Amino acid sequence: MDKNRKIILEGSLVRAILTLAIPIMLNNLIQSLYNLGDAFWVSRIGDVQVAAVNFVWPISFFTISFATGIAVAGAAMISQYIGANKITDANDTAQQLYIFALFFGIIACAFGMIFTPVIVQLMGAKGLLLSESILYLRIIFIQIPFLFMMNIFLAINQAQGDTITPLILNASSAILNIILDPIFIFVFNMGISGAAWATVLSMVPLSLFGIYRLSKGLNYIKIKPYDLRFNLQKMKMLIRIGIPSSLGSSGVAFGFIILFGFVVQYGDSAVAALGIGNRLNSLAFMPAVGVGAALTTITGQNLGANQVERVAKAYRISILLALIFLVMTSSILWFFAPNLVSIFSSTDEVIRHGTFYLRALAMTTWSIAFFNCALGLLNGSGHTLHSMFLDASRLWLIRIPLIIILGNLTSLGATAVWYAISISNLVAAAVAIILVLTGVWKKTKVKDLHILN
Length: 453
What we know:
The chain is an all-alpha fold. It has one domain. It has helices at 3-10, 13-43, 47-83, 87-122, 127-140, 144-160, 164-187, 192-216, 232-263, 268-304, 308-342, 348-362, 368-380, 384-409, 415-437. The protein is globular, with a radius of gyration of 21 Å. The chain starts with a helix and ends in a 16-residue tail after the last helix. The model has no long low-confidence stretch (mean pLDDT 87).
């Protein structure tokens, strides 16, 4: 039995969770530093440019959300097939995942580049914010097919229990981006478009290398990059399990577009503060994301091996570990909020908004432990419809209605947004606990899992 698989199915659960989660946490840390590096260099141009990068982020997030949902489904299927020792089915699923990402990525890139001006205008951007947003976003769309390829590489490797290789590739991409950012922005004097090109060029080579590694089959899974034949049964199962997750992610992304459209009425400083706060908060809750992602793999492989009680125990341990990490990181957010925001802006209004936002988040960031561990449990078992409900309801049923109510019925201004986001984390955590207690995750959604080949 492969070492990672043996740890996941038979070893200490604390060790299994940390073995998988720590590289994912480091991966997320690198990704966050990657984004913060962009924000830092762009902030040297001006607050409007910082606002522009943050303003269009939900659009690119929306674009990749559909493929991300399919990747979640693919990871769940592959991990369960590996747990059941059905490697041929795991390979077939990975091949279909690659084909989907390739075709959808090309279509999304073309569509996005054509309609960028219309999308940004519909969000309410005007003047310099509009022109800088269009300039940045149109270039960012070029990376979409390669980003899709990287996402499937991450999903396939995570399903196998290999979280080290994705960490190395993401670290390499981040380092390359940090090197290219100041060169393109200042040496070549390209401004915000330089930041966009640095992002694209730091993604492309590593994405291609990831596909190359998968084609060599260095772990369990091997794909054939030039074999674009559809396996109808596997593709239908991918779409059936993946569509709810895709719709959930897309719904969340679209909600962020609405959110930024609402915040823009309070001015560029509020938009900049929201973006800076979100990026810094992503550093704080990354332990919960890492633990939740580790739980996805552990859930998938153990359900594939019919070890339901082991999954339940893994969930309880995951909650405890995530809470320990989040109490520490949210404390750092609270005490150092002004110092952290001032790294990315010297404007008093941005620092004021950003500090209040970070401290509001710090009061409820710990609750993300329950939310992300529930997502890990549901995604790992293939219950993406439930994870879609959990993910989307936090934004559409709680956060946005709260923003509208507080924004219209009080004189809080932009502060209404900061309160609403913080409160929505607590309510979503309660919903997550209820979903887990229903026990729906105990039954896998992969229909041919225990049918002999």
